[in-house]
Structure formats: C-alpha cells, structure tokens
Amino acid sequence: MNKYKAVIGLEMHCEMKSNSKVFSSAENSYNDTPNANIRPIDMAFPGTLPTVNLECIRKALLMSLVLNCKQPEYMYFDRKNYYYPDLPKGYQITQMHDPVGVCGHITIEVDGEEKEVLIHDIHLEEDSASLDHYSTISLIDYNRAGVPLLELVTEPCFSSSKEAVMFLEYMRRCYQYCDVSEADTKKGQIRCDVNVSIMDEDATELGTKVEIKNINSFANVAAAIEYEIKRQSELKDAGRYDEVEQETRRFDEESGTTIRMRGKVDAIDYKYFVEPNIPKFKIDPAWLQEIKKTIPVLPRERKIKYIKDLGLTEYDANIIIKEKEYADYFEECVALGMNPKTVANYLTVQIIAYLNKEGITLKEFYLTPNLLKQIIEELEKGTISSKQAKEIFNKALLEKKEPKTYLEGTTQLSDEKVLEDIIIKILNNSQSQIEEYKNGKTNLFQYFVGQVMKETKGKANPNMVRDILTDKLK
Amino acid sequence: MNYIKTIEELHEMLTNGEVTSEELVQDSLKKAHLVNDKCHAFVTLLDDAKGGFVTDDLLSGLPYGIKDNYSTKGILSTGSSNTLKDYVPFFSATAVLNLEKHNVIPIGKTAMDEFGMGGTGTTAHTGNILNPWDLKRMAGGSSSGSAASVAAGVYPFALGSDTGDSIRKPAAFCGIVGYKPTYGMISRYGLFPFASSLDHCGCLTRSVKDAAIVVDAMKGQDKNDLTSWDSSSIHLYDSLDGKVKGKKLFYIKEIVNMENYPDASSELKEHLDNFHKTLKLLEEEGVSVDEVSIDRDLINAIFSVYQCLSCAEATSNMSNLTGIIFGPRGEGKNINEMMKDHRTKGFSSLIKRRFVIGSYVLQKENQEKYFVNAQRVRRLIVDKMNELFQKYDALIMPVSTGPAPYIDGSKDEITKDNTTNLEEHLQIGNFGGFPSITIPNGFVSNLPVGINITGKCYDDVNVLNIAYALESKMPYKNQIAPLLKEEDYE
Amino acid sequence: MHNFTKELVDDLADKLLIGLTDDENKLILNEFNIIDETMELITKIPNISEVTPMTHALDDQTYTPRADEKEESIKIEDILANCDFYEGREIKVPKVVGGE
Questions:
Q1: Which range marks the domain in which residue B351 is found?
Q2: Which candidate from A40, A90, A276 shows the least CB-CB separation from B196?
Q3: Which domain holds residue C43?
C-alpha cells in the first residue's frame, strides 16, 4: 500500500421519493417523455415562485435525525447563484446558512470494525435539468429540474476508498430503509463528489485538497479515489507535490483517470443569500419527535439483533439486511413464530434465487410470510421432509396455490396412536423375528420399519416409527 | 359624455343604463391611443377588447390597465424590456386572475422602467414615458405608464408594482393616488420580480376609495406565493368611514425639516410649505401630527441599503433571462456567448449597471460589509418604525422634493446630494412591508405634488382611512391632467 | 475605501454574462463610490455586527408547506411557444461542453 495517509471527504446527493417536486407541484417521477413533468417554475418562466413540499421537509428531517444531526429552530432556504444551461432560474434553491441538519455522526462497519463517520451537514435542495448531448447540439429536458435532492456532506474522515464506499453503501441502505429514496445508482439517483488529499503518516497538517465532482456510481467513487491517491502520491514521491493543486476535477470513466476542470482561482463564487420568496418555517419540536418515532430499525441494529438474539450467522444476517424488504420479510416470518434459522435459510437460498431468476421484488413474491408459514411449520413439526418442503415451495410458486393444498397427499402419518396400533399389529404377527432380534440380530430393526412403511404406504413418520419400535422392542 | 368619474359613479352609470360597458371600453381605448401618442404610456393596446357583463360588483364592466410586468395569459408581457420583447405568457398573475373574477376589462399593458428598476420612466424599450401634465417632465417610475394613463383619464385604475416607491412616486408626479398594501396582501405570483423581499403589487387610481375597491379585488392568499397571507377578514372599501379624530401621526424631522436644506430651491420650499399646510387640514379633523427625530445615520443609510438589497436580489432574480427558453435567442458560437449576447443587447444600461453592483455586494468577500450590513440596517430602520407605530397611527411625509423633474438632464444615476433623503424615504415602506399610500396634495409650479401616509403592517384600513379623510378636505380627488382636448372626453 | 477598477467591473459583468461599454463601466465606478461611502458609514454603527440581518419584508411570517400533491404538467405547446430553438419536445442549444 501507500506510505502516505489519505484523507477523504464525501458529498452524497440523493434524489428523494415524493409525489411532487420540492419547490414545484410538478410530478416527481422519471418520465421517458421529455418536458412532461413541468410546472411553470421548473423552467423559470417570469413571475413564478417556489412553494415548499411538506413531505420533502419531513423526509429531510428524518434523515437529519438518522444521522444524529442538530436541527435548526427555523428552516430557511438559500439561493446558490450560477449560470449553467441546466439551471433555468440561474440559481439553485438549497440550504447553506441553516441546513436541515448539522454536526451529525453515524456508525458504520468496515471489515468487522466499527467506524464513526462525522457528518458536516445534510441539506434539502433541488435538482437541475438534464442535458442530452449530440454531435453539435445539446437538448434540454426539464423533467428533473426541481426534483428534491438531499445532499449529505461528511467531514474528511475516511482514509481509504473502501471506507468511503462502505459508508455510501450503508447510507444508500438507510435511505431505502427510511423510504426517503429508492437510492438507485443505476437510475442516476445518487451522485457523489469526493475530495481527496494525502499527507505523511506522521504529519498533522492536511495536504492539498482536490475535489472530484459528479461521480455516478460507487465503483467509480472507489476508482476515482484510488486514482487520485496514486496520482498525488506519485507527485509527492517525485518531489513535485507543489504540482498538486487545490482544484476541481472530474472522473473519466473510460480511462479511469481524473481530469482537471478548474483551479482555485476559477472557483465559482455562488453568492449565496437567503431565498426571500420562502419565509422561515418553524420546526415544531413535537413534530420532530413524531418523525423520530417513524424511523425504522436501521440495518446495523437489525444485523446485531439477528446475530445476537436470533442466532443467525453473520453471513446470513448480511444478506438479509442488504435490502429492507428482505429484512422486513424475515422479521415478519419470525413474528409469525417460524424458526429464524429455517426462515433465514429459505430466504437467503431459495427465495432470493427465485427473485433473481424471475427478476421480481419481494413485494411481488407469491409466498407471503403467512403462506411460507404453511411450509415451514410442517417442516419444523417433521410432518414433511426438507425434500418435500422444497417440492411444495416450487409447486406453490409455479401454480400460485397455497402450500397447504399440496400437503394433503404428502403429509406424513404422525398420529402416535394410529402408528402404535399399526406397530402392535405388525409385532403380533412377527413373534419369531422378535425373538431373533432380542437374541442379538439387531439389523432386523430395519425389517420392522419396512413393514410399517409397507402398511402405511410410506407415509409413516420415520422418526416416530423408530421411537415407538424401540420402545416396544425393549 | 364625461367618464372621468369614480368607480362608484361609473358603476351607477352602468347599472342605470347611462352608459354601457362596451362604450366605456371603446372610449378608454380611444383615449389610450391618444395618450400613448403623446406620453408613450403603453407597450400594448388591446384593440379587440370588448365590454363585459355588469353585475352588482362595483368593478364589473370597467376598463383598466395592467403594468407590463404582470404576466398576462395570451397577452404580450415584456416588463418593458428587450429581453422579453416578444414574450407571450401562458399564465396570468394571480392578482390579474383575481381581478378577472370581477369582470373588469384590460385594455392595455402599460410601459414602465425596465422590470421596475428605475424611477424616471426613461428605461422602457418603447421609449421615454412622459408626464401628462407637462410632456417635458417625467411621469416618475417605475409604474410610469400606469400613472400617466390614469392621470390622463384613460380609465379609473391601473395596476402597479412598488419595490422602492414605484407606485407612490409616479402617483405624486401625476397627481393621482398610488397605494401599495402591506407586503403579501396581494400575491406576487406572476409579477416579474425585481427584488423579491421588497416587491409589492398595488394600484394607481384617482381616489382613495377607488384604491380600496381595486385592492379588495386584487388581494388574497395564494398557494403559489408563500409570502402571501390570509386577509379575508380585511374589507378595505367597507371600512372607509373617514373617522380620524384622535389619530396620531408623525413625520421625520431629519427628512422634512426645512433646516436640512439650506440651499433649497423655491420649488422645494413651496413643496415643504404645502406639506405643512396639508398637516393643518388633518389637525382641523382632530388628528395630531408630531415631529419625530430619528438617528441621522439610519436616515442617511436608507438609500445605500436600498441599492445594496435591491440590486443584489435583482441580479439573481433576473438570471433566468438568458434567451434560452423564452426571449430572443442571442447570437454566438456557444451557449455562453448566446446568453451574454441576449443579455447585453436586451438590458438597458441602467439595469446592467445595477446588476454589476448587486453582484459585487453579494460576492463572498464583500457580502458581509455590503449586503449583510444592509440587511442589518434594514432591520434597525424597520424596528425603529415599528417602535414609533406603537405610539403613532401612521407616518406622514411629503413625496419627493417637489413636482416631476424634467426628462432632459435626468440620467437616473446613483448620485447623492443633500436632498437624497427626501427623494428616497419611501423605501422605508418597502423595507418593512408597510402599507403606504400617496395622494395628491396640491400644486407646485402648476404641477401636482403628493403626500404619503404609511402605517404598520396589516393596518391598511387605518392608513386608507387617514388618506380618505385628508382627501376629502382637498379638491384633488379624481383630478386629471389637462392632456387631451375637451372633446376627447365627450 | 475600496479600489474599484475598470477591470474589476468588467470581470463582474462578464460573470453576469453582460457586456459593458466603457461609458457604462465608468458610470458604475462613480455609482459604486457613492454606495461604498455610505456602507463605510454603516460599518461604523455601534454593534452593527450583532444585529440579525433582515431577509424578508415580514420578518414574523411563517408558512404552511404544501401537501405533497402533484399538479398536471403544462402543455408542451405552451412550454415551447416562446422558444426560438427547440427539437421535438426539448430546448435546443449548441453543444454544451465542460461542467458547471
């Protein structure tokens, strides 16, 4: 590895889920048809004014609480002024002076070790329009303009690309768990800015900070960090550290390198000032408490519970917390009285494989916890074998019928009284074999089992048969 | 027939069949063309306008004018700027929609200082807007065309907007009434913004009662404007009773006292004398008027505070004017050159200069000293006013330093001399969002001058009542400029 | 007192995507000196830095946020009616290169 220490900070922009946009009442949803989710303010027609979506405030406060941030007494918005073709108003409405959360922290896990990540702030803002580039022209689609964004800014507290990506992954999960965002990187819902500097292991003063903007996948975040550390380290090795400039770069996916956009002197002065069209909004402490109550148990807490209280392996727990729907499904099953380990086994193997194969989500999965219970319960009781359970599972999914419909034909004969009657009858007709058995020919035990199976057409519960036979042959 | 009447009188004429709405509209259009020829008061004249239904609504069937910075659906709305010279909006401002419910008929869009910036009426893309009392003089701005057309008797009222004094000063120069209610009483949705925290909608009329009727129709909380508020319990017209006995007013010594102006022109002297005479009329009605002293540093800062705040907000508010989505597309090799070309050609010199100042005061390294300090002084001034409003019902002040100045020699540049405070004090009303009304109070050099009454927020009824009482003591109600020949009014 | 220069003014204007004539530039320098003079005086107001900046006309005003309900999109004909260059449903501009 490197002889230098890397210092990394992240800015994570995440598009929020809501019916309407944050400062506009246009629909907030991806739309293939350009300029089809538009209210006048989304294209900054003269005289239009912003309105504020309550649900977006709620979700922003929710995330602020998740990140253990301090919330302001009053919420204000600010204008960030700059000219760019994707910014119709010529400014973005964001939060600079009093963000929805400051001074937070959250614990994540990296390689089994706990790491506390410090949060500088989290703020609510609007997205820009999207530009489609062609050979000589660009076309502007304003559907995305005004879509709510949460921007989370960490302190420079990561020392490796791995830590940074683990944090991003964890936050992505938190957004999903809290139903704040789909947080789907493939849909471009998460974009990151990264800042990287290096310093000698024993140094106390931070190195020169380089910012890499607008990275659209976690893999690229890792690649950009790695590349920057390498680039800066090589310059430092070569005694040319003064060539590392405080600048803004972008990540070029094709070459896997970062490319300079602008230096410090060209840094844009965004001329922030308080948005005069939005008065202050009092954040009612009682409302904040209510919001706090709606925070679901987060993945890390769930994992700890699954391992400690429910006895799962870390491997299984990790798979289950990956998606909130997995974890919710799992917990619902456990609440219905099913054995956690059995459910975990079913979920992590059969169910996830089936979902992947069919390309569906757990919401669309036919076997709800209640239906799954019909199988798991019988399996636990031993009335069906695990092989039978699997067969029923597949059949039920194939024919979309309740598992119990298939249990009739396959149910084991487990009625102790019935089995005992059958066994007594067989033993009464097998006096000579009993004598031989008692004289030491113990392998005749299998003969008796076979007779019971023959009599019950193979339905007898083999364990019970063994138990009863052992008792009777004493 | 003479239609220079109050809204109540016109309504009576309409309901008893003396005149039809169609006749009023045609008469209004005819005069509008004549006034436009002389004063350049309009950007657009709606020659297809037709008379409307007359109901028991006082405003029904009446023609009116709309300042060109109100967005009007299907009607050219330029803000008197080349950047929007062909812009036809697909939606109307809330204030206009509210008025439409009263069956009023717009007959034109009035010219103005570009986007409301400026107080002379000399920056409209359609040419200098002239004062109907004297075509060599300015109408004042920025609601210049609205003031000129109402003063010339085109119609009983027109819409205005007011960021510093843009309704109240042209009203004074044109000898009419100009009223901006408390900030947010009328929605700003659809008003092209100048400086959002200072922008007010309002109207220009020839009587206080008419102003009350019009604003009653314009106002109302709007889901599209978060700064608008519920005024449904306020009924301005119904509340005018002229009872002012025992009311307490004040004026600011540091601005009004003649001692401040050792080199005062004869016009200024006459204007201030006239102001004090007007105060006597109020005293006759049992109103007391005190001279109040305010920290001179605060008074001297008003103008710079206004420039810092209004220019800063304006430069941001008008960043959407790039010619990309609307407005004429600029020329250039790339998009930046196109935007720059659009803006360089589209904006008047005045606006460009203000933008540069606004941008400078917002810059990171300057913001604290200029913009934020200006916001702080704004608070100090507003706090001082609110403190005085605890004791007094309203502030009463002369408007400007006298009658309208000549157009020639007016540059609308930022200058400073010892009369600046007298020119700029109406901006106090915008700092605090205070209701404020100007009414004519006489003549200086045969030209109208005005007096202003400003009260505490949400106390519009009180402000209008004082103005109403004062108006009835003077002979200037419903006066018009002698611009058109007698036969034009018949 | 600040030293306002022609270059400073031109740079400011350029960032605002505005071109200035020399006369305009000169005027701004004059105007600016006047504002600067007063602002210098403001900084001398005792305890000015402790005053909370006033950002809105009605300082005590709060608002009720909008319920999360969507409204119908505006018609594409309206969107494009005032646009000089578009293609299909989108606004057309020369190719945009480089980031914000």
A1: 1-490
A2: A276
A3: 1-50
Question: Per-residue pLDDT tens for A417-463?
Answer: 888 888 888 888 888 888 888 888 888 888 888 888 888 777 777 78
Domain count along chain B:
1
* Range A416-472: architecture per CATH: Orthogonal Bundle (1.10)
Residue C85 located in a structural domain:
no
* Kind of pairing between the strands at A210-215 and A247-252: parallel
pTM for the full model? 0.91
Q: How many domains does chain C have?
A: 1
Q: Please answer whether residues B394 and B453 qualify as being in contact, where contact means their C-beta atoms are separated by less than 8 angstroms.
A: yes
CB B88 within 8 A of CB B77: yes
B426-475 pLDDT per residue, tens: 999 999 999 999 999 999 999 999 999 999 999 999 999 999 999 999 99
Q: Rounded CA gap, B113 and B254, in Å?
A: 30
CB B464 within 8 A of CB B234: no
| Chain C (34-63) residues lying within 8 Å, Cβ to Cβ, of chain B | 34-35, 37-39, 41-45, 48-49, 51-59, 61, 63
- All partners of chain C with 3 or more CB pairs under 8 angstroms: A, B
- Search chain C and give the residue with CA nearest A262: C99
10 Å Cβ neighbour count for B272?
A: 21
Q: Collect all residues of chain B within an 8 Å Cβ-Cβ radius of residue C13.
A: 352, 355-356
- Residue B123 contacts residue B350 (beta carbons within 8 Å): yes
How is chain A split into domains, by residue range? 4-287, 297-410, 416-472
Element (H, E) at A331: helix A324-335
Q: Does A96 touch chain C (CB under 8 A)?
A: no
CATH code (residue B236): 3.90.1300.10
Q: How many CB atoms lie within 10 A of CB A137?
A: 15
Of the residues C8, C31, C37, the best mutation for testing chain B's interface (the one with the most B CB atoms within 10 Å of its CB) is C31
